[in-house]
Amino acid sequence: MPVIDPDDYDLACEVMHDATNFAVAARRGLPADAIVQKSDGSLVTAVDVALQVFILTRLEAIFGEIPVVAEEDMHSIGGKPAAEAHCRALLRAWGFDGGESAIERALSCGGYAGSTRGMDAVWVLDPIDGTQGFVDGDHWCPCLALLSDGEPVFACNGHPTLRGGALLSASRGEGAWWYPLAGGECTEAEVSQEPLAAGESVCVVGPARATPNQIAVRRAVGESTGHPCRLVHSDSQAKYAHVVAGLADVAYSRRGGGPGKYIWDHAGGILIAREAGAWVADTDGSDIDCSQGRRLSVNRAVICAARGVGPLIAKELAARDLAEGFVPARGVR
């Protein structure tokens, strides 16, 4: 298995830069019949699938054959002729000339499901995280992360709806950086460590299509810090970018009674936020375990916070888990 030199991470950023700009253009001409509802009720588009093919094909050409954990597969738009045709048309427009066999290869190679401990390199890809936002004109982002021995060591997420359009990238121990999609100088991403002032609102990210109950819960969790709460709406890994950009103080995702969140919805954002200086942890203050395969099956939640409120949010979510019968109480470390 190839070992990726950190000096070459910029090549992966170039792939994500092109992919994000391609997706921005493709969204403007997205036909209704290129939007498909999955069996779980979520959306996928021909653009999601085309981007996965484009990104994985480019990465393999640069870095060689590396195991992949990816969201989409042959079944994502399979059996939907209009969506399949639009996917092929997009790939042709993007210069992809691999043919049907190469498309099938790119869509079948992302199913790695085992532990990533002891593996030098594993890509984690969500070609469009937040497809509903992509369709609605809300926040969305192509997300790529690299795991080594089960831990994120590199990430690059495209954020066309933030900072005028930018990539947000990080490598372990080297900080996080904003790169304008339109070109220009990069700037370091740094999360504010300034404590909230008395009476200042804590800004908590909530789903764009939040139910009244979800809104009430998010407000209560925010208010557990002792501050009034203001909600900021975002889905996808853009919620981590909101904290990094200073547009929110808290973003979290709870496991509840489920099997764990999908790793492709979190791995890159976890590394980027941490490298930018955010507090990123579970409800007991422990690290997020990205080594278990396709899901974050060990953790109760992923909490990303700025300005010193992380432990307070963790304590509140731990208490809610206990009250709802999900886990025994464990103190915040």
Tell me about this structure:
The chain has 333 residues and is α+β, with helices and mostly antiparallel strands. It folds into two domains: 6-189, Fructose-1,6-Bisphosphatase, Chain A, domain 1, CATH 3.30.540; 202-323, D-Maltodextrin-Binding Protein, domain 2 (3-Layer(aba) Sandwich), CATH 3.40.190. It is 33% helix and 23% strand. It is built from nine helices and 16 strands. The protein has helices spanning 9-28, 46-63, 81-93, 99-108, 131-136, 212-223, 238-244, 267-275, 310-323; strands at 35-37, 43-45, 68-70, 122-129, 141-148, 151-159, 166-171, 176-180, 187-189, 202-206, 229-233, 250-254, 261-262, 279-281, 295-296, 301-305. The strands form five sheets. It has a seven-stranded mixed beta sheet, sandwiched between helices. Strand 6 and strand 7 (166-171) form a beta hairpin. Helix 2 (46-63) crosses helix 3 and helix 2 (46-63) packs across helix 4. The radius of gyration is 19 Å and the shape is globular. The model is unreliable at 329-333 (pLDDT under 50).
- Name the poorly predicted regions: 329-333
The main pleated sheet reads as:
7 strands, mixed
- What is the fold named in CATH at topology level of the largest domain? Fructose-1,6-Bisphosphatase, Chain A, domain 1
Number of helices: 9
Largest beta sheet: strand ordering: 3-4-5-6-7-8-9
Give the full name of the CATH homologous superfamily of the largest domain.
Answer: Fructose-1,6-Bisphosphatase, subunit A, domain 1
What is the total number of structural domains?
Answer: 2
- Could you tell me the strand content as a percent range? 15-25%
Overall helicity: 25-40%
**SSE topology string:** HEEHEHHEHEEEEEEHEHEEHEEEH
Output the structural class.
alpha+beta
What is the CATH architecture descriptor of the largest domain?
2-Layer Sandwich
